[in-house]
Fold this protein.
Amino acid sequence: MKLNDLRDNKGANKKFKAVGRGIGSGKGKTAGRGVKGQKARSGKTGIRQFEGGQTPLIRRMPKRGFKNIFAKDFSVVNLGALQTAIDAGRIDAKKEITSAILIAAGVAPKARDGVRVLAKGELKAKLELTVAGASKTAVEAIEKAGGKVTLTAKVKEKKAA
């Protein structure tokens, strides 16, 4: 390789095209945009869902459902994952287990609105859990193993019909 052989990669440098600089330049007057019309103007053509004045597809489609902005977003922990962490020695089953301990041990991803325990998997250890929520089957499984569950989040009681 010699110094006189050095070149930029193909397409690395693009020559600036001067537009609207007189008839002689070849790109004068309309600057290569043709004549009049919406596409010759600045702005409007960049709108992606614009359909030329026709009602856009997104506005013609029916809307369904809603997003509950008050819904709680819990981090989910399964009993099987809890037992695995206890077996690996990341959680001490003899002490009270809180959501902070579950997050520190890497069992729950992050706090959000609290930690909710679900019954997937098997639990053999006797635990004392303090969490935001737990399913009925998870509470039953923990109590069957000889443990205790304390819930910190308010649970809405269903009205008897």
About this structure: The two ends are 88 Å apart (CA to CA). The chain has two domains: 18-65, 75-151.
